[in-house]
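Bumping with the actual sequence this time:
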Amino acid sequence: MTSHHPFSRRHFLTSGSALLATGLTTGTLLAQSPALAQTQAAAPKDPRLSPRIIGDAKAPVLVQEWFSLTCTHCAHFATDIFPQVKEQFIDTGKIRYQFHDFPLDQVAMIAAMVARSLPEERYLPFISSLFSRQMQWAFSGGDPVAHLKQEAALAGIAPDEFDRISKDMTFGQELYQLTQQDGQTYDIKGTPYFRFNSTPFAQDPETVEKFAELVSKA
């Protein structure tokens, strides 16, 4: 599990100087919205932050995952385990699955903002692609935001639209606020973090067998 508090000073300092060009920093987020520091927060107003849930609404178990798009443990789960989860549990009506963006650094924040700006039916394909190519765009050297911009272009987001999304301070503030609220409510220390109905599991299940065990105990 990637065990760092969201938006720690360390994560922002290691994001790279290119990120400063986006204007999205903790200083601007907090300065423009002091309420972000409060434990209780209002429900997001931006429709892009509406729940991302797949599966049968009548399924007996709701599995929720909080993840960061730059988290390598999250990428392992998304690429190696989740396809089996979808086939064995979601497509068969055994569970519903809810995705919670929980960015741990500035690059992940911009990636989440871009993903959430796509039509809802394109959200999962895009984050799946980002996870499968995480090493190429997030950790290959150079400017990760420029690499992310290229990934977004493959999803149909033009460069000027990418710039507009990444500089949308109101949207960024709401996503940050939601992250902080969830972190405090569920005591999330890192990602991935899961809830199987009301039962928490604070790490990558690592195997579909372990995931099945957690579903059975929910």
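The tokens above came from a reply further down the thread. Residues 29 and 173 are 6 Å apart (CA to CA).
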